[in-house]
Amino acid sequence: MKIRALFVCLLVVVGALIWPGYSAGEEEICTWRGKASLKYADSATYFVAPATRPGEDISNSYGAALDLKYFSGLSYQYIKKILPGKKIHITVYIPEEALSSDDARLGIIRFYASSNKNGDWVSYYGDIERHHITRDGNYEFVLAIPEGPVTVMNNKTFYPDEMVLLTVEYLEPQAKQNKLYVPFSFSGFRIEGFELNDSALRWCLVKDGYVQDGVFLACAPAGSTLVYAMGNEMEIACALKGIEAQDTFTTVTALLPKELCNSKGNVKLSITKNGSTKTSSRDFSTCDPNGRIFISVPLDVPKDPALPSNPTLKIDIESDLGHDMDMPPIALERAMLGIGKIVPFDNKWRIRDVQGLGGYERIGVRKDGTVLPGELTFNDEGDNVYQITATIPLKGGVDWTNPHYRVEIMRDFGEPKDMEDQRIEVTIDPQTDVTDVWQKPFRARMGLLDTNGKVMFGPNVSLSEGLQCLAYLDVTASCPVPKGMMMPGFDLKKVKAILINFEAAQTVIDIKDLKLALSNVTIKPIIGVAASPVSKFDFSAFNRDPDSWQLRRLVKESGGFLIGVNYPFPQIKVPHEVLEVPQVYPTVGMKPFDPMPLGFSGDLTQKTAIRDFKDMLDKDIKLTRIFIFGHLDGVFSWDRWNRYIEGFAAGMESELLAASAKGPEEFRRFLRANESKLFPEVRSRVIAGLEHHVMLDLIGLLEILEQVEKDSGKRLMAVISLYDFTMADNIKKEGPLRKYLVGEHPEVVIDPLTRVKAQAIVWGAMKTMAQDERFYKYIAAVEFMNEPENSSALATKENFQKLVYFVGEGLYLLKDAIGPKVPVSVGFRGWYYDLAYWKAVAGGIDILMPHYWESFESYNVDKPGLWSLDTPADELWETLGEPKAGRLTGLGEISPQGNLMGNIERLKKADYDFMLTWAYIGHDGYDVKPYLGLIKERISKQENL
Q: What is d(CA 461, CA 470) in angstroms, rounded to the nearest whole number?
């Protein structure tokens, strides 16, 4: 039976909305007419269904669990402190079909919390463990968490400050009416006293009491309309009014039950205005792994505001499989208005053979929006397609000359366009599961090609986290492009084409074809005003004494060119659940839920580092580079929101701010004059504002290096890099399905009080470390920050100059803290033309250490116009804005792959003093260990000359 419903809504536009996202204006006014069973979602609603399709699986109980450690969006440290004594609310909706036919055998709902102390899981149900289901409809639950430990029925102890899971569970009645399962839903989840963000909550499926890792529930955002029992067809009409902005488009998202996703059907979105209709359609096979279909059409708003613009939006859904009450509802999320020109996937798109290596030369687009290699074919009805599902032929590994290592698609504009101060975006949904290589990911990025063949790219995004991502490019020459690159001479005003570049994983992997859904390529103006440039820092107060640098001694002993390796962090053999994020874990400090100290003062870390350092010395490696603070979690004493530094300079905050506002020299004087007040316990290696393991770990590194020298008779020196770009790279969660909550502390740069506290604390920490005589023996250099340009939250028009000032002020205080005998530096990212943006801090750079990556630009090394390793070091210094003048030049990071031995010779001829290959631990596909034998042979020949 066909059921037709009429959906009438009013979309009031009060601001520019950015895709993807939700309306910042008023909610839509929706009125449905028809026979469908409807339910309005006034809060985020989660759907629980234990099987992919009827008959596939039978469970005695099923439900959902929220892991508070990973998926609440809040700091677990904060949760542990605040949760005891709080009440938790949830509303469970049970449909009529779930009721038992036998009143003596009712279904049951349980809502409970679970703690985990030393591996002992204990559940707490509150006053009532079981709630019998006697009717259909909503069931309200309130679980009061005790303020302290309580003994439960099995004589075990529940610890509220060790609470990890919240679980809602439905136990099937034993006498259902021949139903294999019935879906239910829940909403209204909240914890009193907590600011929860619905978009950050991710509930896992539970079957028979066991959490199904990585199986997350579908969720309809607040404001969605739930459609029950659609039947085989539904028509939805929506009146849009008050649209005034130019270059807009509307996007509608339908969340389909998995049963429909696995059947034949399609969704069509059409917009009619003044008798003209535009449509876009997609079939069910283009659903993302969560069952969502995104579909968009542009809105042609009259340029004359006096003319009316009241288009009618309509959705048609047709399905071969009847949608009934045995399935979760179809969730129609609120229609959203996107700003910008939306670019169709039309016959102007083609494959671009980046390196002339062959591979697929054309791209085909089917009527349903699916893209496959082959001849160009398009919707024969003339409809525009703004979302496609593409199969990209990518082959993983380390052979960059493979024709399927990089695939690039492009769309010609026809006529050159002025793209300055424009933002280009594309939403990408991975359809192929490659989460097992998340540390060596498949990647994508958005780019442009100008009329001279030069390119500009935005930052890479990972396709190996299993979730939707946004690839973007800010087309501006007023500040560095975060994580991106721009060829010298790229003409922002004469752009020929849009590029979307895909790269294979840095590891051998069986998967060759990567299925991706690409949605809404848009072009829109960049919002934001560039800050005034920072005045050049005056470092004349400090003497530079290169002859006293132990690093210069090492260079001379190595025949004029030193080869070292990066050792960003020890690769400790503990489960990922313990180490959280191995790739970016700081080597100092301790997170509240770490089971043991994992920094350099920890026993396991010490043993690992000593072993690795001895191996380096055995291969004649005398210099290594280590990351210290990483993403800053577990480093500073963060407040309960994990945002601001607590426990430091109580009562002196205003004085700190005032001193900093007068410039770095006055700030330095203030710190020296108030050192005893700010750091009263510094002699006991306790610094307020730092997690108490930090100083132990810093001194622990010196102890490790000393022990290595005692054991081997050789000295290894270290370049320590303090801050890392991961502290503000706009990635708050990463890993498979973005499980791991990490970093994101841009406030260290943006918030004035947090910045001055951080600068003062690091000044005190480095001053204390430098009082240890081993500091000058084993520390070759202190790098204030690694790749600051890649801090995407900071490398923007609004914030970049704040980042420049933060680095300049940090270098100033660092020189004061450690003196002239240890050089200081910044680890500038690859693409040395960006050095020009750092002229304000050039006087504080003792060692210029840019990074070089052969695969960075996705083109052959030494292609004309790209940075060549033959570029003289003096030219790099000129780009930075100062002559070398006796200072050192090193390459801070370079891949060991490619022509490593040839690159060493080129760097030496270009007058570099040293290089550091990436990396000893090989966590991201760049493993230098197989090359250490060749490097040792090269070092031996050089030293014998």
A: 7
488 token code pair: 């010298």
- What's the token pair of residue 219? 């969720």
Length of the chain equals 945
pTM listed for this prediction: 0.83
| Neighbouring residues of 432: CB distance < 8 A, sequence distance ≥ 6 | 511, 513, 514, 515, 516
Within 8 A by CB and 6+ apart from 771, the residues are: none
> pLDDT, tens digit, for every residue of 434-486?
888 888 889 999 999 999 988 899 988 999 988 889 999 999 887 777 678 88
- At position 74, the amino acid (one-letter code) is L
Higher pLDDT pick, 840 / 504: 840
* The two structure tokens encoding residue 921: 């631990």
Return the closest-CA partner of residue 597 out of 705, 731, 700.
700
Sequence-separated (6 or more) residues with CB below 8 Å from residue 121: 114, 115
Tokens (6 digits) for 856: 């960075």
Angle between the N-to-C axes of helices 752-770 and 693-712, in degrees from 0 to 180, rounded to the nearest 10: 30
For residue 649, the tally of other CB atoms under 10 A from its CB is 22
Distance CA(430)–CA(168), nearest Å, equals 29
Nearest C-alpha neighbor of 180 from the set 63, 56, 96, 95: 56
Distance CA 648, CA 656 (A): 11
Is residue 339 within 8 Å of 245, Cβ to Cβ?
A: yes
| Dihedral Cα 590, 595, 599, 601, nearest 10 deg | 110
Percent of the chain at pLDDT > 90 equals: 46
Q: From residue 778, give the alpha-carbon distance in Å to each of 602, 816, 820.
A: 20, 19, 15
Q: In the beta sheet, which residues pair with residue 163? A: 115
Read off the tokens for 623.
């210099």
What is the rounded average pLDDT of the residues 160-186?
77
**Secondary structure of residue 780 in the 3-state scheme:** strand
- In tens, the pLDDT along 760-776 reads 999 999 999 999 999 99
Which amino acid is residue 209, in one-letter code? G
Residues 853, 825: Cα–Cα separation, whole Å: 20
Please check the confidence at residue 115 and state whether its pLDDT lies above 90: yes
**pLDDT surpasses 50 at 6:** no
**Rounded CA separation 499/503 (Å):** 13
Are the beta carbons of 176 and 222 closer than 8 angstroms? no
Q: In angstroms, rounded to a whole number, what is the distance separating the alpha carbons of residues 197 and 72?
A: 8
Q: Which amino acid is at 472?
A: Y
What pairs with residue 794 in β-bridges? none
CA distance 7 to 39: 13
Return the H-helix or E-strand segment holding 904: helix 900-909
Q: Are 230 and 317 in contact (CB under 8 A)?
A: yes
d(CA 394, CA 443): 10
First to last CA, the chain: 89
Helix (H) or strand (E) holding 740: strand 740-741
* Amino acid code (one letter) for 647: G
Share of the chain above pLDDT 70, in %: 84
H/E segment holding residue 753: helix 752-770
Task: Identify residue 714 by its one-letter amino acid code.
Answer: K
